[in-house]
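Re: the 393-residue chain
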Amino acid sequence: MEKTWRWFGKKDIITLDMLRQIGVEGIVTALHDVPNGEIWTLEAINDLKSYIEASGLRWSVVESLPVSESIKYGGADRNRLLENYKISLANLGKAGIKTVCYNFMPVIDWIRTDLYRKGEDGTYSLYFDKIRFIYFDCMILKRVGAEKDYTQEEMKQVYELDKTICDAEKDELIQTIIVKTQGFINGNIKEGDQQPVEIFKRLLALYDGIDKNQLRENMKYFLKAVIPIAEEYGINLCVHPDDPPFAVLGLPRIVTNADDIEWFLNAVDSPNNGLTFCAGSLSSGLHNQVPELAQRFAKRTHFVHLRSTDVNENGNFIEASHLEGRGHLIDLVRIFEQQNPNLPMRVDHGKLMLDDVNKPYNPGYSFLGRMYALAQVSGIMATVKNEMIKKQS
């Protein structure tokens, strides 16, 4: 596996020289300054590519070339946006960048309720508290009919929480769920926006009447438009699973389990239509057995995120050590090295630790925590490689 690292461009306080020193081989990045839906020019792509290569690294994966909301919900301008997407994809191919990760999650990418959950060892991890999320949905967002999506026991806990939660906690939930975890990724809402809840409600309203079947058809429409370009330029296009892998906020989710993955792979059956295997996202759903999914879809996987979670029966989950949890990363490395070697891999997320605590990193993307995780995963990879050599001798 190629050791890659998600890097947020020339403004990232983690420099490419730092990454070379810790054993990173390839860079995962995007043109973060280009607004969603606009064309990535060949000139801009080559400029960033040259900058990366000047540090002795290579631009291995685009994460991500964003799919505009209008493409996802089937808006009036989706064909124009699809044409822009196809041009951007072709330009990436011309520049020699052959792996492009994207997602098809409506409105909101990944969801957590706490960005700084302190562990017994003093480090901080990302955390999802289901009751606090339901509180946000029902009591802050006040989504019509939201209560019907939850059990009576869950709603009872929400009403109890309402008696004690303070305004600062409510504001922190808003910032965590729809601002801090989203702004640096999809740009729908960013820090500094006034009335983020109202903006978010307007975005949700775009999906009124869009159920799982319709969202699937919209994804198929997208794939039919862009996969021919991917085939022409030898690009592996790979969708990221939904995080977490279940329906949220009344929105459909369509990359949550084995059946969903099988569906989109068959919707446009091309080797260029593949999966970003995110062990963290998939493992946060108790319905998923992650090693089984890896065995089943290894051949159609183009990019791997190695991350793990611990999940409680009540639905709460936390980012786990890269050597523990439901991700079973040791098993995954064995599977991918045997069935689809040389895939780009990045350690997705890491604990916030030591003197990184007060640095302005994007949530989940601190330096030392990811470096620690990369060291753990590098040890796994070396062990698996030795196992394979012994078997061959």
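DSSP finds 14 helices and twelve strands in the chain.
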